[in-house]
């Protein structure tokens, strides 16, 4: 038994250290993570009695659905009979109420979960079918007899650790050199180094001050948040203004927004949380994400974000007439938000996965206190990995809000071979929002009451009626002749028209709209100052798909 334990240690340590050197089998040449392959039998009776090494007795091998998933196993007794569970699992989510810490292991080291009525063990690992062979040996406690001759254990533990340190240091050095080269390349491409510095320091701040931002709140203790009033209602969730307590007293708190999903809407919560989890998404024109919580006791999922008291763009435009400067600020920042979402590089040149929003509309844009915009509601968004097949893209279906759907989306005739077509559909929707902003700007002359594109908010617009207007009659929101009286509005109107072109290929990109805004606002100096006026509120009963 002593010898057997030493062999088990040697096997485990070599497997763990080998994974430091080996190119992971789950990654392809471009470095994309491929789905893991695991034993997947869910629950089965087992002969394993939770000692030594057990085979899972599961004969089914399955490719995990999601590339983030790893292999997991659990062992417990059910009415005295031992049972084994094998499956794929996303380690960002709890497994039997536990967050997995060992999912980067190459072997499955069973750990006893404390606080359970019966014996209960779980393990996770990230190598092909690694949840088949289960080690019930606690490597942190030396087995009897091993102390007598510690040399083999010392050798197998210290040597791989030393090698791992050397490899990590070399990797860090290579990353540093690569990063410097990247920065140089970015500067030579003409990106303003000042902007880069600002964004970098922003990122740095977010890395250090909230290392947990863009992640699930792994603490079992939930944030001390007191919900206040409801500020928004979507198809899957409700948004509340809330107080995040900062100290012992009730007086010190930070206002936050909490988006609350019922347990049945787990998929929507997960989709939005996965989008927000990408640290590279952070941008001043994208709603700032704080954390996600699984509020088990209330059977609710939460997403906690920054709170913007001016509310959404539709509410803001309903209540205010804006000046030319505000038009440029709102419109330019909206375009910058969309361009960042669509980009495959951050402004500093770091690689990023392009994202499409797929439900851009004035309700999904928030107005910040400095009158710039930020994008919100990523419940229908899609990360455009380079390895997505047309089938995967097609499965994502026709989604969005009928009023804002591009003609090719209304017709379900998008070119799924080309991921750019998803961005082109976003640009169409963005054009409608830019039109809404312009229609409330005093620079156009006579400003009418706020109306959304294609008629009154109360009008029920379904896909079929939108097809008649947008495809059959090629209708677009009206751009009256008076809009040409102002040079800036005239230039902007032409850009809007290019963005809502019937032919998706003819539309300009969001980045091009960003550049147009800086040209327009530098050429046209504000001839009119901002004025504000109150207007009536209006309801929102859009048809959503
Ligand atoms: N409505 C939806 N999300 C919001 C937020 N983060 N702040 C203010 N109003 C909102």
Verbal overview:
- The protein has helices at residues 2-21, 151-188, 193-209, 266-276, 313-319, 324-342, 390-395, 407-410, 420-438, 463-472, 487-499, 510-523, and strands at residues 37-39, 42-45, 53-55, 61-63, 70-78, 81-89, 108-109, 111-112, 120-125, 133-135, 225-233, 238-245, 253-262, 289-295, 300-306, 354-356, 365-367, 373-375, 382-384.
- Residues 13-31, 141-148, 182-214 and 528-545 have low confidence and may be disordered.
- It folds into 3 domains: 30-136, CD59; 201-307, Phosphorylase Kinase, domain 1 (2-Layer Sandwich); 311-544, Transferase(Phosphotransferase) domain 1 (Transferase(Phosphotransferase), domain 1, Orthogonal Bundle), CATH 1.10.510.10.
- It is α+β, with helices and mostly antiparallel strands.
- The strands form 6 sheets. A 5-stranded antiparallel β-sheet has the order 2-6-5-9-8, with no helix packed on it.
- Adenine binds at residues 231-232, 239, 257, 287, 305-308, 311-312, 366, 376.
């Amino acid at each position: 038994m002593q010898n057997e334990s030493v062999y088990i240690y040697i096997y485990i340590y070599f497997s763990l250290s080998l994974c430091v050197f080996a190119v992971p089998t789950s990654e392809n040449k471009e470095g994309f993570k491929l789905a893991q392959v695991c034993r997947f039998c869910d629950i089965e009776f087992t002969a394993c009695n939770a000692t030594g090494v057990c085979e899972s007795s599961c004969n089914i091998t399955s490719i995990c659905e999601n590339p983030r998933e790893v292999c997991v196993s659990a062992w417990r007794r059910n009415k005295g009979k031992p049972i084994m569970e094998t499956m794929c699992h996303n380690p960002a989510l709890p497994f039997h109420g536990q967050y997995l810490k060992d999912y980067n292991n190459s072997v499955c080291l069973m750990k006893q979960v404390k606080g359970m009525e019966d014996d209960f063990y779980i393990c996770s690992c990230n190598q092909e079918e690694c949840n088949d062979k289960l080690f019930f040996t606690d490597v942190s406690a030396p087995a009897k007899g091993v102390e007598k001759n510690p040399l083999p254990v010392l050798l197998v533990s210290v040597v791989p650790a030393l090698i791992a340190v050397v490899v990590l240091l070399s990797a860090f050095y290579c990353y540093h050199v690569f990063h410097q080269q990247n920065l140089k390349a970015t500067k030579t491409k003409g990106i303003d180094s000042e902007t880069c510095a600002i964004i970098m320091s922003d990122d740095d701040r977010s890395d250090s001050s909230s290392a947990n931002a863009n992640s699930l709140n792994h603490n079992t203790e939930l944030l001390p948040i007191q919900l206040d009033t409801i500020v928004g209602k979507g198809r899957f969730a409700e948004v509340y203004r809330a107080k995040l307590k900062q100290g012992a007293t009730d007086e010190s708190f930070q206002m936050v927004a909490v988006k609350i999903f019922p347990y049945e809407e787990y998929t929507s919560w997960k989709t939005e949380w996965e989008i927000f989890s990408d640290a590279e998404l952070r941008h001043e024109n994208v709603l700032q994400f704080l954390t996600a919580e699984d509020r088990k006791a209330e059977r609710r999922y939460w997403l906690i974000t920054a709170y913007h008291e001016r509310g959404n763009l539709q509410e803001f435009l309903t209540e205010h007439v804006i000046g030319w400067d505000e038009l440029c600020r709102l419109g330019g920042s909206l375009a910058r938000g969309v361009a960042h979402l669509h980009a495959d590089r951050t402004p500093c040149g770091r690689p990023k996965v392009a994202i499409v929003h797929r439900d851009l509309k004035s309700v999904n844009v928030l107005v910040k206190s400095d009158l710039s915009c930020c994008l919100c509601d990523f419940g229908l968004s899609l990360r455009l990995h380079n390895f997505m097949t047309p089938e995967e893209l097609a499965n994502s279906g026709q989604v969005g809000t009928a009023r804002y759907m591009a003609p090719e989306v209304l017709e379900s005739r998008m070119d799924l071979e080309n991921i750019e077509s998803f961005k082109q559909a976003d640009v169409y929707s963005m054009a409608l929002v830019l039109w809404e902003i312009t229609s409330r700007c005093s620079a156009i002359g006579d400003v009418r009451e706020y109306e959304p594109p294609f008629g009154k908010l109360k009008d029920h617009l379904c896909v079929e009626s939108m097809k008649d207007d947008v495809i059959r009659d090629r209708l677009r929101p009206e751009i009256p002749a008076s809009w040409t009286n102002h040079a800036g509005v005239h230039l902007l109107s032409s850009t809007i028209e290019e963005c809502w072109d019937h032919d998706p290929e003819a539309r300009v990109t969001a980045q091009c709209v960003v550049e147009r805004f800086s040209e327009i606002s530098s050429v046209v100096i504000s001839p009119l100052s901002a004025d504000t006026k109150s207007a009536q509120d209006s309801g929102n009963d859009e048809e959503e798909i």
